[in-house]
Design goal:
The structure holds two protein chains of two kinds. Chain A is mainly alpha-helical. Chain A is built from three helices and two strands; from the N terminus they run αααββ. In chain A, a hairpin with a 2-residue loop joins strand 1 and strand 2. Chain B has a domain of 248 residues: Amidase signature (AS) enzymes, CATH 3.90.1300. In chain B, helix 2 runs antiparallel to helix 3, helix 7 runs antiparallel to helix 15 and helix 9 crosses helix 12. Chain B starts with 7 loop residues before the first helix and ends in a 13-residue tail after the last helix. The chains are: A mainly alpha, B alpha/beta. Chains A and B meet through helix 1 and helix 2 of A and helix 9, helix 10, helix 11 and helix 12 of B.
Chain lengths: 99, 487
């Protein structure tokens, strides 16, 4: 599979990765080469094979719905680059007047 | 002072008899670290103050007669396992200032056992790599030859154990990251059955494959560490609710009645001839010890690397979505909106290899490609697992082979050829895809560098895996050989 520059940019956008010009060029080559390698899986007929996403098959593990002590919020916030009034501070997500 | 050369069980005997103190042992290890870490560079963070404080506490416990197998024993912890209050970078710029507010379950348990934490070991960024060259900070060096890699991703942990900068280490293994560096350094490394050891507090790479495992100087120590870290943890929903046997009870010197399977597909193009000879000698030794050796076939072996790629990239791209520069890590002050903030933080905070895998994983999961790539890999994962199921159903107790097709390579040799580096994981990957317990134990030297023998068992048959590794180890002296720098 040959990956184009536009595809690299599209995937980077989906993955929220800002890339430099040099990185985009390098990834065009790398992604094309590595995807070509993995396409050898197409040699196998897997029509009737069930997928294995996980080797542990015990279903959902539930706990009692009881309150338990958790970490203090100041500990949780201690690694955040920006906080305010006990919250993570982030950029505005909605514009003024938008709902 | 040569206390740093002790194994866990040797140090424990001396501590129990009060012939040495944990402080004395710790000081010896810290002195060794100070002397050789400028060359080996096994650690991202060293914690001598914490270590000495814990050693003093351990000595008090021992004086009161309260001693367990790991009390007062120094440990290095891979830098993707959270230790409360200690910088945990995961080998990445994006977490270069991250100080976890909690302990991983394994770390909490080791603390309760009275261990001494000497530091956080270097690793490939987010455990993505086979050499530690993808650490965002610096590569570690193989104590046998400083111009060579120690393997990876738990390369710092394996190098630290070999150089006697700790008595043991905890690593993590997603596609071979405990066993391959153990093999390339000539120490013992085990990946337990998926679910055997809690992953709570292990920074996630590929959640269906990741397991924490011990890196030790010998197999007895591996069994002792497994005794401490294998238990059910309600904080990890994939943690197994299986009883934990005393793993040391499996250590015996005869292999009478044990059936050893040797996959013919393992001895193919790409396997270094010198490595092959050492491994074939080791298999002969297993037969001499009383094991029955049989050929087995794993017809899908040649597809394991591609299957692992797609599975681990997809899981990684999802797991690493949490690094958005808001809750922890990098912040881009010049960002104008939230998308830019995330993209800039991730673009600057992640290294080249991590970006490459996030890109590949995002692509494999993206609309129009999911079935062709990710789902296809999940189906082939079933075939790989069925190959191993068939081998074990045929009466084989363990499957053995080389840990790595090559010995430790030169720093810089493969760093620009990702595909070639990835292909060296072909023997270690199946145990992760199938969730099986697997160990690497030293089986000799080729061109002066260690070769590892890999032993893989049925789910939760760590005991059998340890038994075979122990019997082999005790019939050789490879595990006793150490490079000059470690003495």
């Amino acid at each position: 599979m040959k990956i184009s520059r536009a595809e690299v940019e599209h995937i980077a956008d989906l993955a929220r990765l800002e890339l430099s010009e040099g990185e985009i060029t390098q990834l065009e080559t790398d992604l094309s080469q590595i995807l070509e390698y993995v396409e050898q899986l197409n040699e196998l007929d897997t029509t009737d094979v069930l997928p294995t996403a996980h080797v542990v098959v015990k279903g959902d593990v539930l706990r009692e719905d009881e309150s338990r002590p958790s970490l203090p919020s100041e500990d949780i916030l201690s690694n955040a680059p920006r906080t305010q009034d006990g919250f993570f501070r982030v950029h505005a997500i909605f514009r003024k007047g938008e709902r | 002072m040569t206390l740093h050369r002790l194994t866990i069980h040797e140090a424990h005997d001396l501590l129990r008899r009060r012939e040495i103190s944990s402080v004395g042992l710790t000081e010896s290890v810290l002195a060794k670290m100070e002397q050789c870490d400028p060359e080996v560079r096994a650690f991202i963070t060293t914690t001598p103050q914490i270590a000495l404080e814990q050693a003093r506490r351990a000595d008090k416990l021992i004086a009161a007669g309260d001693i367990g197998p790991l009390t007062g024993i120094p440990v290095a912890i891979k830098d993707n396992i959270c230790a409360k209050g200690v910088l945990t970078t995961c080998g990445s710029r994006i977490l270069e200032n991250f100080v976890p507010p909690y302990d991983a379950t394994v770390v909490e348990r080791l603390r309760k056992e009275g261990v001494v934490q000497v530091g956080k070991a270097n690793m490939d960024e987010f455990a993505m790599g086979s050499s530690t060259e993808y650490s965002a900070f610096f590569p570690s060096h193989n104590p046998w030859d400083a111009s060579r890699v120690p393997g990876g991703s738990s390369g710092g942990a394996a190098a630290a154990v070999l150089a006697n900068e700790t008595l043991f280490a905890l690593g993590s293994d997603t596609g071979g990251s405990v066993r391959q560096p153990a093999g390339l350094c000539g120490v013992v490394g085990m990946k337990p059955t998926y679910g055997r050891v809690s992953r709570y507090g292990l920074i996630a790479f590929a959640s269906s494959l990741d397991q924490i495992g011990p890196i030790t100087k010998d197999v007895t120590d591996c069994a002792l560490v497994m005794n401490a870290i294998a238990f059910h943890d309600p904080l990890d929903s994939t943690s197994a609710d299986e009883p934990t046997p005393d793993y040391t009870s499996f250590l015996e010197e005869s292999l009478a009645g044990v059936v050893v399977g040797v996959p013919m597909e393992y001895f193919a193009a790409g396997l270094d001839q010198g490595v092959e000879e050492r491994v074939r000698d080791a298999i002969q030794k297993l037969a001499d010890l009383g094991a029955e050796v049989r050929d087995v076939s794993l017809p899908h072996e040649r597809y394991v690397v591609a299957t692992y790629f797609l599975t681990s990239w997809a899981e990684a791209s999802a797991n690493l979505a949490r690094y958005d520069g808001l809750k922890y890590g990098f912040f881009a002050p010049d960002a104008r909106n939230i998308v830019e903030a995330q993209s800039k933080a991730r673009g600057r905070g992640f290294g080249r290899e991590v970006k490459r895998r996030i890109m590949l994983g995002t692509y494999a999961l993206s609309s129009g490609y999911y079935d062709a790539y990710y789902l296809k890999a999940q189906k082939v994962r079933t075939l790989v697992k069925e190959d191993l199921d068939r081998a074990f159903e045929s009466g084989v107790d363990v499957v053995v082979g080389p840990t790595s097709p090559i010995v430790a390579f030169g720093i810089g040799e493969k760093v620009d050829d990702p595909l070639e580096m990835y292909l060296a994981d072909l023997y270690t990957i199946p145990a992760n895809l199938a969730g099986l317990p697997c160990i690497s134990v030293p089986c000799g030297f080729h061109e002066g560098l260690p070769v590892g023998l890999q032993v893989m068992g049925r789910p939760f048959a760590e005991g059998m895996v340890l038994r075979v590794a122990y019997a082999y180890e005790q019939s050789t002296d490879f595990h006793l050989q150490r490079p000059p720098i470690s003495l």
